[in-house]
């Protein structure tokens, strides 16, 4: 350490980590005291080794503190004050020296003399002032001795100079300042000052006194409901020094307002709660604050008002919420706490004004109509006359733009400049106010607006513009980006890429090249513009070509060329000879191509010389002469052929004309737009209840099974035995041995296997966790057995040859009921209804079930049937309604029928219209009613399928139709209670009980089944009946009849017409089934759980062929469960399925099965029409299936805890659906039948031995025998 070291204070020096010492008189820091501190007082450093008398900073000469023990000395600005501080001094020579106090105020240094008395330095008085407008400043302070040696100031003792006036501009704040400043309110100068500056002591208020003149500057809100409870915030000055000053002194319009202690801000703010006026009448008045004897009053008045809600807009929104609801009314901004609710669901307030409020709806757990309620503090207001409806969330079905991809997949495409039209198809878009599309790039969303084209189902969105800096786009490999939609708070349409697997494809901007010449001359009908990547993401509708101010109609767009038809010269403005050609792509991308001239290019015609022109003309003349010679020679040769063909042509003309007419009709049907049949579903979907649904699948064709019978006295006697047998069934070892034993017996038939599986599932309905465990064990054994045998693994689960396979069907039946009701049931029902409606639009033969509109070749009418659509007015009598016990309109209903319909068919269509919203089993049967034609005021005629007017031709009788009775269009018909005609009575007497005629529709509840032969329908007297098509006994026909026969295959085009009409409904059903997230419903846990189980089994058995696992999954769910429901919608809905509809559903079901197959079917001209009909669609459906299986595999595995929770909930919901004792009793019958073999199995199995299962079964036998004898 050298002399002159920058350590200028004793404290710093002796506190150093170096061995430094401080020479007090020399005022220096040194390491060599012998040399530099001779005869001086020495303070040694803390790092110095060895003994020392004075060591450390405690021995340094220092300023210790002020007289009050702080390091801050407060001095009002403009006041003259003497400063004193305590010091610690060593050495007599310091005491005897001269002291000076030094102050540095805003850079101005002031010195005053000081005296040391004892341990205190007294500075002479000095006036402290500063020029800054700050409320206070800090001035540094030092005590100097020996001319230039400052005492150490380790605590940074300083001077704080302040101005009371700058710290408070009103009395209240002034008196609330900290006491250390000594500020008070000088009434004479109306300023905040210290007392010395005020002058007259009587006009200076100290902090213990009350400020006069409280002032209220503002308050809010200025309106409140007359119900009270409003928190009013009052801002002002002099509003009390503490809460006690104003606690009982605040009134609003004369009503006491209770201050809230926690929200009170001294002198400045009061928040208080006011009660209502106690009466529902308007009232207003000022806000008054009393502080001691002083009173402050607001200039504006507070008003108690009655808020009213008049209307809301919109009146519906998505179930997920997020709708901005605009509420109009009066005084909607009244109160301090305004809340809105839809029933009990909060609607977050976004803004309020006098006549309008806006809130954002929250998520609803169900679709419903809700009432708007608004809370204004203590008051609640309700809008009764209008409701807000939570409707289904929007569903995005397809998103596409630009030309189709090679794979025909529908994907959105765009360019960095944005503005490309994206077509969005789906449902329920009308519920969204401001839909947007967004695309993510570099973790940043790019957003663009959408607008509705169709109210509910069609949006057009602009592709967002994306920053192109750093983008290196390959036109052959577009950049795949995540995209989705902002539709209020609907989550299901966000990030569609992760849900559908389809990305937003970003292609480079198209490049349009300029014309080669400065001015392009318009020579032909079209204008061609060259470029690059023109159609990667764009179509003709995305591009506009402007020629001047007119448009050039774009006719084609290819990869490197655009063609458009320019406007005519007359369409251009006068004086514009060479308009600019500009290409606009989307909304932001513009190219200036050049200028276009409609004038002929100078010298163009002169370039063609006369010799060339003459040569061209001569060539054309020679070609014409050669053609004329050839034509004459051909004419001579063909004359002979014409003569030979003339006779044949005349014979075929009639047939050809008929074929052409039929083909033209079929073509027109194919081009007809699909009828929107979804509007017919007005009464809801008639789902069967869980019990009926399960019974139809578990025990088909058994209406009153034992498990539905609760009054069984004989089972009460067997209760103890059945209970013990039930305990055995709940023992996994016993149940598995029981099933294996039955299946190993060769007399255990296929019907028995199905029955036992169904009974076991009924028994285990309340124990679905145990049931699932058993099912997995049985399936694992079945797979093991399949792998050990020589059969191909793909055959697993294809047929119901084991108890496990039928249990698997029942397992899915139980667990997918909720999914059916919430999601998949709707498209299945719409397909059924649309199919039935389409079939009924054309003639249907009531005898053969053949129809004009069909998907099945077997049920297609192959003749030309003349018919006329009619609309009749139908009513039903009050007596009939009373007898049936069902509600139905007595007013006339317009029903569409055909003049070729039989009377039974007309009755069926009338009942469909009258009881549209009634389940089929609850409406009257057509056989219980007669159809009455009312021809005038008194004229009434009962119409029958058969009566005395029926037309007879030999042994054939033709069923009566509306045309037979000459019923005109718009006729009035009525359904009345069944009557018996004189003809029918006599006919019954004549034929007695030998009448064997019946129609295909067997009754109200049974489903029709096709006849073995149409010739069976005849009376005992030998009559044969026909409706539209008369079927002959044999194939022998008259020779001349063949010329009049129609080529029946011509009518197969009607299959295509029907298929096209129903295509949307088939697609919707398949897409719903083969989608992991559709219609707002998540994939059922049961599907994911079972598919994961099959994947695990494949891994365990080292199956590497993906087609095997694909086939297992298809056999387990689509072919085992869904095909059954598609063929039999009456298993899910309370509907009637006709033979014709049944045949159409069979075609759909076959298509569904083909879609799940991994093999490719080779089709030819001899293939069944049902295969050819959907040949082009099946590859698309196969892709859906493969993607569905892949998506499920990629989903997170389901934990056993989540699966068990779901299974437990299913068990709880359906515990009491079936009589399990009846199921146990029937299972016990199998145990008795195969008792000997079962007992041997139980006695040989080691696990059974440990649990003494054979003994327990013997106990059951004993109890059952005893109970039976009792």
TrEMBL record:
Transmembrane segments annotated in the record for this chain: 612-634, 722-742
InterPro entries: Ig-like_fold (IPR013783), Ig_E-set (IPR014756), IPT_dom (IPR002909), Plexin (IPR031148), Plexin_cytoplasmic_RasGAP_dom (IPR013548), Plexin_RBD (IPR046800), Plexin_repeat (IPR002165), PSI (IPR016201)
Gene3D superfamilies registered for this protein in UniProt: GTPase Activation - p120gap, domain 1 (1.10.506.10), Immunoglobulins (2.60.40.10)
SMART domains in alphabetical order: IPT (SM00429), PSI (SM00423)
Family matches, as SUPFAM superfamilies: E set domains, GTPase activation domain, GAP
Keyword match Transferase: no
One GO location term (cellular component): plasma membrane
Domain PSI: 2-38, 163-212
Name of protein: Jg4548 protein
Species of provenance: Pararge aegeria aegeria
């Amino acid at each position: 350490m050298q002399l002159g070291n920058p350590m200028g204070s004793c404290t710093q020096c002796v506190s150093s980590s170096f061995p430094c010492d401080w020479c007090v008189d020399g005022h220096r820091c040194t390491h060599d005291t012998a040399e530099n501190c001779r005869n001086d007082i020495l303070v040694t450093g803390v790092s110095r080794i060895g003994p020392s008398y004075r060591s450390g900073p405690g021995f340094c000469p220092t300023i210790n503190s002020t007289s009050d023990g702080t390091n801050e000395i407060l001095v009002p600005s403009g006041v003259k004050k003497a400063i004193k501080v305590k010091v610690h001094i060593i050495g007599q020579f310091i005491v005897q020296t001269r002291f000076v106090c030094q102050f540095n105020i805003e850079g101005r240094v002031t010195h005053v003399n000081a005296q040391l008395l004892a341990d205190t330095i007294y500075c002479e008085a000095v006036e402290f002032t500063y020029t800054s407008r700050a409320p206070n400043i800090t001035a540094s302070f030092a005590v100097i001795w020996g001319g230039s040696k400052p005492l150490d100031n380790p605590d940074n003792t300083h001077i704080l100079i302040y101005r009371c006036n700058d710290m408070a501009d009103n009395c209240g704040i002034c008196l609330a300042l900290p006491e250390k400043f000594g500020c008070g309110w000088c009434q004479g100068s109306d300023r905040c000052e210290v007392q010395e500056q005020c002058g007259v002591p009587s006009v200076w208020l100290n902090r213990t006194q009350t400020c006069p003149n409280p002032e209220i500057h503002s308050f809010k809100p200025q309106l409140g409901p007359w119900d009270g409870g409003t928190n009013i915030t009052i801002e002002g000055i002099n509003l009390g020094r503490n809460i006690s000053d104003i606690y009982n002194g605040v009134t609003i319009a004369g009503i006491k307002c209770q201050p809230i202690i926690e929200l009170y801000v001294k002198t400045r703010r009061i928040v208080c709660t006011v009660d209502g006026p106690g009466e529902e009448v308007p009232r207003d008045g000022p806000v008054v604050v009393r502080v001691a004897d002083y009173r402050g009053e607001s200039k504006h008045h507070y008003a108690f008002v009655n808020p009213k809600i008049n209307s809301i807009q919109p009146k519906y929104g998505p179930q997920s919420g997020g709708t901005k609801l605009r509420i109009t009314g009066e005084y909607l901004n009244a109160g301090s706490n305004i809340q809105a609710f839809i029933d009990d669901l909060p609607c977050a307030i976004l803004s309020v004004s006098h006549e309008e409020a806006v809130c954002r709806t929250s998520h609803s757990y169900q679709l419903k109509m809700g009432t708007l309620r608004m809370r204004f503090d203590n008051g609640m207001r309700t809008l009764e006359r209008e409701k807000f409806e939570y409707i289904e969330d929007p569903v995005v079905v397809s998103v596409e733009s630009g030309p189709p991809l090679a794979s025909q997949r529908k994907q959105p495409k765009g360019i960095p400049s944005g503005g490309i039209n994206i077509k969005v198809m789906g449902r329920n878009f009308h519920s969204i106010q401001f839909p947007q599309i967004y695309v993510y790039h570099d973790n940043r969303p790019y957003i663009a607006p959408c607008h509705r084209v169709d109210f509910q189902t069609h949006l057009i969105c602009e592709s967002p513009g994306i920053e192109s800096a750093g983008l290196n786009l390959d036109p052959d490999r577009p950049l795949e980006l995540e995209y989705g939609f902002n539709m209020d708070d609907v989550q299901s349409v966000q990030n569609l890429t992760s849900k559908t697997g389809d990305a937003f494809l970003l292609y480079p901007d198209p490049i349009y090249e300029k014309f080669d010449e400065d001015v392009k001359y318009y020579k032909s009908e079209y204008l061609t513009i060259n470029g690059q990547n023109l159609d990667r993401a764009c179509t003709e509708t995305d591009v506009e070509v402007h020629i001047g101010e007119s448009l050039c109609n774009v006719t084609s767009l290819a990869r490197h060329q655009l063609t458009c038809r320019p406007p005519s010269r007359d369409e251009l403005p006068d004086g514009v000879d060479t308009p600019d050609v500009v290409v606009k792509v989307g909304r932001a991308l513009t190219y200036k191509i050049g200028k276009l001239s409609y004038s002929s290019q100078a010298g163009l015609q002169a370039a063609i010389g006369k010799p060339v022109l003459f040569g061209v003309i001569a060539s054309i003349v020679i070609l014409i002469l050669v053609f004329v010679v050839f034509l004459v020679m051909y004419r001579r040769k063909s004359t002979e052929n014409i003569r030979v063909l003339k006779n044949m042509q005349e014979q075929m003309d009639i047939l050809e004309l008929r074929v052409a007419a039929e083909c033209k009709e079929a073509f027109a049907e194919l081009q007809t737009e699909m009828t929107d049949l979804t509007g017919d579903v007005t009464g809801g979907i008639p789902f069967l209840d869980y019990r009926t649904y399960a019974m139809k699948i578990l025990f088909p064709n058994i209406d009153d099974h034992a498990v539905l019978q609760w009054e069984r006295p004989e089972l009460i006697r067997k209760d103890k035995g059945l209970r013990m047998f039930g305990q055995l069934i709940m023992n996994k070892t016993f149940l598995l041995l029981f099933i294996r034993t039955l299946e190993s017996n060769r007399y255990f038939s296929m019907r028995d296997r199905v029955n036992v599986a169904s009974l076991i599932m009924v028994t285990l309905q309340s124990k679905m966790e145990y049931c699932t465990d058993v099912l997995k064990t049985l399936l694992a054994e079945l797979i093991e057995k399949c792998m050990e045998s020589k059969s191909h693994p793909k055959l697993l689960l294809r047929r119901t040859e084991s108890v496990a396979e039928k249990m698997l069907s029942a397992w899915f039946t139980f667990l997918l009921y909720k999914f059916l009701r919430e999601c998949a049931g709707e498209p299945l029902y719409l397909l059924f209804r649309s199919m039935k409606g389409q079939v009924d639009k054309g003639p249907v033969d009531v005898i053969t079930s053949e129809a004009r509109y069909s998907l099945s070749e077997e049920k297609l009418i192959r003749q030309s049937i003349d018919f006329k659509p009619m609309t009749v007015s139908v009513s039903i009598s009050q007596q009939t309604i009373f007898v049936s016990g069902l509600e139905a309109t007595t007013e006339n209903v317009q029903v569409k029928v055909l003049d070729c319909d039989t009377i039974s068919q007309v009755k069926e269509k009338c009942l469909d219209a009258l009881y549209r919203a009634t389940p089929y089993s609850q409406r009257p049967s057509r056989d219980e009613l007669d159809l009455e034609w009312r021809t005038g005021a008194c004229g009434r005629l009962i119409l029958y399928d058969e009566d005395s007017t029926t037309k007879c031709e030999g042994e054939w009788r033709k069923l009566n139709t509306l045309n037979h009775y000459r019923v005109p269009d718009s006729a009035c018909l009525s359904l009345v209670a069944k009557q018996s005609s004189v003809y029918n009575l006599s006919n019954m007497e004549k034929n007695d009980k030998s009448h064997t005629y019946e129609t295909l529709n067997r009754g109200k509840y049974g489903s029709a089944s096709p006849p073995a032969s149409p010739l069976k329908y005849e009376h005992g007297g030998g009559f044969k009946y026909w409706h539209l098509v008369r079927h002959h006994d044999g194939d022998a026909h008259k020779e001349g009849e063949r010329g009049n026969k129609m080529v029946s295959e011509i009518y197969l085009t009607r299959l295509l017409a029907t298929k096209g009409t129903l295509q949307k409904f088939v697609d919707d059903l398949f897409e719903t089934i083969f989608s992991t997230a559709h219609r707002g419903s998540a994939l059922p846990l049961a599907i994911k759980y079972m598919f994961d189980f099959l994947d695990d089994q494949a891994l365990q058995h080292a199956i590497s062929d993906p087609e095997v696992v694909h086939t297992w999954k298809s056999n387990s769910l689509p072919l085992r469960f869904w095909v059954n429901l598609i063929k039999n919608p009456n298993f899910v809905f309370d509907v009637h399925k006709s033979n014709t509809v049944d045949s159409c559903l069979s075609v759909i079901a076959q298509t569904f099965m083909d879609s799940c197959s991994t093999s490719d079917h080779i089709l030819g001209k001899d293939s069944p029409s049902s295969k050819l009909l959907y040949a082009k669609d099946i590859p698309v459906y196969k892709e859906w299936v493969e993607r569905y299986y892949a998506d499920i595999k990629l989903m997170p595995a389901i934990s056993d805890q989540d699966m068990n929770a779901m299974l437990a909930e299913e068990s709880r919901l359906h515990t009491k659906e079936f009589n399990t004792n009846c199921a146990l009793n029937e299972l016990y019958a199998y145990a008795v039948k195969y008792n000997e073999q079962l007992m041997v199995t139980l006695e040989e199995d080691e696990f059974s031995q440990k649990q003494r299962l054979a003994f327990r079964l013997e106990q059951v036998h004993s109890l059952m025998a005893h109970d039976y004898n009792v």
